[in-house]
Amino acid sequence: MGKRGPKPKHHLGEGTINRAGYHRIWRDGRYVMAHRWAWEQAHGPIPDDHDIHHIDGDPLNNDLANLQLVDKVTHKRIHSGCELRDGEWWKPCGQCGEFKRVGPDDWYISKEGWPLYGRCRPCHIRVVVESKRARRLRKLRAVDDAAER
Ligand SMILES: [Zn+2]
Ligand SMILES: [Zn+2]
Q1: Residues 37 and 89 both lie in one domain
Q2: Do 95 and 137 have their domain in common?
Q3: Does the pLDDT at position 4 exceed 80?
Q4: 59-108 pLDDT, tens per residue?
Q5: What's the gap in Å between 120 CA and the centre of ligand 1?
Q6: Near ion ligand 1, which residues have CB within 5 Å?
Q7: What is the DSSP track for 49-106?
C-alpha cells in the first residue's frame, strides 16, 4: 500500500481506510469499523442481522446523523438500487432497467424474500430461452461440421 490512505473526515481518531472505503479504527485490541463503533457508542450494541448504513452514501461520513440502523435485507436492497415506494420495495432490472415491484409476480424470489438473478422474471425467461437456443445451435453446427467432413 501507499504511504497513507485518505484522511478520515471525522474526529474518531487514527486508523486506516479499507479497500471498500470504510474507516477502520483500533479499539480494545482489534480493528473495528468506525461507523459501527460510532453508532454503538451512542445507541449500544448493534443487533444481529443489522448493519449501519451511511445515509448520504459517503462511507467516511460517520457523523451520527448520517448513520442509520437497518436490517441486512433492507441494507442489501438499498445498495442494489432498490426504492421504497408507499411501503413496497421496487428494484431495477439489470437487463431491461425497468423498476419492478419486488414480489413473485415480477421476480424469482429466494426463500429469504430476495429477488434472484438481478433481472426480472420476463427478462430471466428470455435469457434462459436464448442461451438454450444458442446451445442447441452450437450443437447443430457441430453435427453439420461432422457431416461435411
Ligand atoms: Zn449502507
Ligand atoms: Zn427486465
Answers
A1: no
A2: yes
A3: no
A4: 999 999 999 999 998 998 898 889 999 999 999 999 999 999 999 999 99
A5: 23
A6: 53
A7: TEEEEETTS-TT---GGGEEEEEHHHHHHHHTT-EEETTEEEEE-TTT--EEESSTTT
